[in-house]
Amino acid sequence: MKENMLYFDWYVDDRVYSLEYAGIEDDLAVFETDNYILYLTIVGDTLIKKDNLKYKNYDDFPLDLRELISKNGIQEEYGSYKVIESCYFNYCVSKKIGDEEEFLCCFNTFNQIGSQDEEKSKMNQLINSYIDTINQ
Q1: What is the mean pLDDT of the chain?
Q2: CA-to-CA distance for 91 and 93, rounded, in angstroms?
Q3: How much is the pTM?
Q4: Cβ contact 69:86 at 8 Å
Q5: What's the Cα-to-Cα distance from 28 to each of 7, 24, 65, 78, 100, rounded to whole Å?
Q6: Alpha carbon distance 114, 130 (integer Å)
Q7: CB–CB of 56/46 below 8 Å?
Q8: How are beta strands 36-44 and 100-110 bridged, if at all?
């Protein structure tokens, strides 16, 4: 049985490359159907080092590092700045039970978010594939 989308919300701003270093701990997107909710979430933060200084929160990054990230996207190095730990994302699914929800699992760890339309389409496919798998 195919799940139909009831609701989709996108919390990712237009700064896609900046987002991947922002240290955001909340859900980045929510895809809700009649029976399930699929969340796009952050698994870990990115840690960048320059000499003895470490940066983990995008708001604390020096302006030159922010500009390099926006201009060049995800890289291992930005001049004298080195990426020590990379940020990862995944999808988590919960089953709706009345007004509550029961966490089921997280899957598909990855390191770059697509556009809003790409992620919405991917989340639709993922929830329906997941349901097909559990119904077999």
Answers
A1: 81
A2: 7
A3: 0.69
A4: no
A5: 14, 8, 23, 25, 20
A6: 20
A7: yes
A8: unpaired
Position 8 scores a pLDDT of 94
Q: What are the boundaries of each domain within the chain?
A: 1-78, 81-135
DSSP secondary structure, the chain, as one string:
-PPPEEEEEE---S-HHHHTTS---S-SEEEEESSEEEEEEEEE--EEEETTEEE-SGGGS-HHHHHHHHHH-S-SEETTEEEEE--EEEEEEEEEETTEEEEEEEEEEES----HHHHHHHHHHHHHHHHHHHT-
Query: Residue 89 in contact with residue 100, Cβ under 8 Å?
Result: no
DSSP bridge partners of 41: 90
Cβ–Cβ < 8 Å for 48, 54:
yes
